[in-house]
Amino acid sequence: MAGVIRRLDEAVVNRIAAGEVIQRPANAIKEMIENCLDAKSTNIQVTVKEGGLKMIQIQDNGTGIRKEDMEIVCERFTTSKLQTFEDLSSIATYGFRGEALASISHVAHVTITTKTADAKCAYRASYSDGRPKAPPKPCAGNQGTQITVEDLFYNITTRRKALKNPSEEYSKIVEVVSRYAIHNSGKSFTVKKQGELVADVKTLPNATILDNIRVVFGVNVSRELIEVGCEDQKLAFKLYGYVSNANYSVKKCILILFINHRLVESTALKKAIETVYAAYLPKNTHPFLYLSLEIAPHNIDVNVHPTKHEVHFLHEDCIIESIQKHVESKLLGSNSSRTYFTQTLLPGLPASTSDLKASGPSPSHEAGERVYAHQMVRTDSKAQKLDAFLQPIAKAPPASSSSSSSSSSSAPSAARPSGGATGACGSAELGDEEMLDALAEVEPKEAEKMETSAVGAEAEAGGEAEGEGEGEAAPRKRPRVNKEEELTAGATPKRRVIKLTSVRELREEVTEKNHKGLQEMLQNLAFVGCVNPRWSLVQHHTKLYLLNTSKLSEELFYQILIYDFGNFGVLRLSSPAPLYELAMLALDSEESGWSEDDGPKEGLAEFIVDFLRKKTEMLEDYFSVEIDGEGNLTGLPLLLDRYVPAMEGLPMFILRLATEVNWENEKDCFRDFSRECARFYSVRKEYTLDSDTQPQVTLTPSNTRYTLHSRQATHATGNTHAKQHTPHVTLTQSNTRSHR
Fold first, then answer.
1. Which residues pair with 573 in a beta bridge?
2. Does pTM surpass 0.85?
């Protein structure tokens, strides 16, 4: 007997259709996100409870829904984006069938709160099976729409039991939101679990596509991406996106494909691109791909799948082939560097003579013989140094004192091949301590001969180096010294090594506080001029910067005092300056802050003299501050060539040495002294009166840092326009310190 054909009840029809459109919570969120984007939203927030099965809440700041439309908003085939069937050929929105909210309302409890721009208040309504339970009620709310979906699949028991893992469903929700967030770079997306304070995905409205990829997939992916883009007028398509280079691979291919801004899947395109990567990536590894394909609307059919995750378009094979060729050309152009992972031998293992001999090619090697790690060829220079495979060279015992002079004088000549440049470089490769020991053992006459020969060799090397290109790095050599010129701070031939822990820690503090951006600017700036004694104008790239010369010079001198610790020349005073008079001048000034409660000035001045006289040996040894037995200042450190500090600040410098320096702790003492000395040497506005005496400060590159050089015409600063009566002092640069 033939079966009877009956018309299904409308509720059954709608529930079947809803099961096709909404397969899991991620599909519901995808449909609602597309509605938010069609409403021109710029901020979309998604909140989920129990993987979306218990509750889904999505809020946007779009145009909202009119109160008149809330009666039919959840009915099937109600939409504002389509009127006739012909409109499908030019559809530019995500939705067009009007089934999203209708399908959700048939399998869940839906509540909509919405407000338009011209409405005085928001309206809220609850829906079941596509119809409102009650008329919309006015309520408070922001512009936009908030949709709350509760108890998803409450009336489809089989579907709800199949989706019993909330964690898996939440991960799929995060995946969908993340992909829309990457593509819609001008909008902000947020997704989190209910009750959590921190969002699992949060993108900024002003972020780029690359920034969003970095937020979602991490830095390791974003730094290995190549930008792709092509256009074909004949096939009427345009491609834009990012693909990973040959250095990055994952176990599963990640393809984020948008066609006309719609998240879809394309198996044919995925296979075609993976075929290209097969020649570049290791076996069983895959690339990361983000592609945005725009095709003429009349060439694409979007109505081929209930969930719209597939589309069909004309000339599919030709477009895929064109994309495949373009990606392959980009990979060929980016193959300049590759990263390999190799197993390396740990450093420090002993290498015997037999091992070294066995590492070379031998005719007796058998096919099945084991190959050790030290016999392998490295493919990555960063993996290990070659020093681990070389035998250490035993150092010869120190020679006796009687033969030290002859060995030290003959060894350099025997080690040097002919040619002045090689000899200069060879002599400079010795360590600081070895150089000092060798110079200490050489007789004065022989040392003078070595110095003369070294200067001559450097002169020849300098002549050869002038003919070479500027791009080649010159060999290390001792600075050339002309006997007619005075020795400068940077030309000290004898330099001792300071191994004090406190000095090393101070240098590490300077290194840790280094600002990369400021350092790069100082290294590549162009000096424009001095605005006044305090401010200098420089150019970096296309921007002008105003530099505080006082602060910059103070920091410069502090770093010189720390890095050249114990290796300063001496600025010798032609007539000694009594410390007592300097202290009295400082106490008479308002800057000292002296009051009658501090005691008589004479007693304080005598205390300062006695205190500094006790520190004479340390000050002279470490900082080249010389004080004679009668309490007179005779020398100051030479920190910069042809630069003399303003002597108007000398009295306060002496006073602050006794009052502001912590002499009890070694590290604090060195730091405080260097700070006070740097403050005294810095270019200070209060000691420069008119434009004729203003120092012109120029920044010139040094080997490791920038230095400030003064272009003042005279070095005698003791008799310039002084604000206070300082002793008449004429300073002359002395040679390097004799005891070093």
1. 731
2. no
> What's the gap between Cα 400 and its chain centre?
54
Give the distance from CA 232 to its chain's centroid: 38
Handedness of CA 678, 684, 688, 692 (dihedral sign): positive
Q: Exposed, middle or buried by CB within 10 Å (0-12, 13-18, 19+), for 723? A: exposed
CA distance 579 to 495: 30
CA gap 241, 216 in Å, rounded = 16
Task: Give the separation between CA 682 and CA 610, rounded to whole angstroms.
Answer: 27
Measured distance CA(185)–CA(53) in Å, rounded: 29
**Helix, strand, or coil here: 400?**
coil
The band of 60, judged by pLDDT with boundaries at 50, 70 and 90, is very high
Strand 632-638's sheet: what is its strand order? 626-627, 632-638, 569-578, 731-733
Tell me the per-residue pLDDT of 631-670, one tens digit each, with 9 for 90 and over. 888 899 988 888 888 888 888 888 888 888 888 888 899 9
Using DSSP's 3-state secondary structure scheme, residue 232 falls into: strand
262-264: strand order across its sheet: 225-232, 237-244, 288-295, 254-259, 262-264
Query: C-alpha distances in angstroms, 615 versus 533, 621, 658?
Result: 34, 10, 10
Collapsed DSSP state (helix, strand, coil) of residue 50: helix
Which residues, other chains included, contact 82 with Cβ-Cβ below 8 Å and sequence gap of 6+? 88, 91, 96, 97, 98
Minimal CA–CA distance to 426: which of 416, 434, 418?
416
Q: How many residues in total does the chain contain?
A: 740
* Burial zone of 495 (CB within 10 Å; 0-12 exposed, 13-18 middle, 19+ buried): middle
Paired residues of 304 in beta bridges: none
**Cα separation of 265 and 304, whole Å?**
12
> Which residues does 195 contact at the CB level (< 8 Å), separation at least 6?
none
**44: Cβ–Cβ under 8 A, 6 or more apart, which residues?**
33, 36, 37, 58, 59, 60, 187, 188, 189, 190
CA distance 308 to 84: 19
How far from chain centre, in Å, is Cα 419? 45
- Centroid of chain to Cα 439: 45
- How do the residues of the chain divide into helix, strand and coil, expressed in percent and rounded to 5? 40, 20, 40
Asked if 39 and 81 touch (Cβ cutoff 8 Å), the reply is no
DSSP assignments along 430-479, one per residue = S-HHHHHHHHHHS-HHHHHHHHHHHHHHHHHHHHHHHTS-TTSPPPP-PP
Q: Give CA–CA dist 19/354, Å, rounded.
A: 75
Planar angle of CA 512, 516, 522, nearest 5 degrees: 115
Radius of gyration for the chain, computed over Cα atoms and rounded to the nearest angstrom: 40
* Nearest-angstrom CA–CA distance, 594 and 659: 12
> pLDDT, tens digit, for every residue of 483-523?
444 444 444 456 788 888 998 999 998 888 888 888 888 88
389 SS3 class: helix
Name the amino acid, one letter, at 298.
H
Let me know: does 421 contact 465? Beta carbons within 8 Å. Answer: yes
User: Shortest CA distance to 170 belongs to which of 191, 188, 156?
Assistant: 191
Alpha-carbon gap, residue 608 to 599, rounded angstroms: 13
User: In angstroms, how far is CA 21 from the centroid of its own chain?
Assistant: 46
Q: Which of 22, 54, 29, 58 has its CA nearest to residue 43?
A: 58
The tokens of 273 are what? 């691109």
pLDDT at 15 exceeding the cut of 70: no
Residue 259 exposed, middle or buried by CB count within 10 Å (0-12, 13-18, 19+): buried
Q: How far apart are CA 360 and CA 60, in angstroms?
A: 71
Plot region of 434 (φ>0 → left; ψ -120 to 50 → alpha; else → beta): alpha
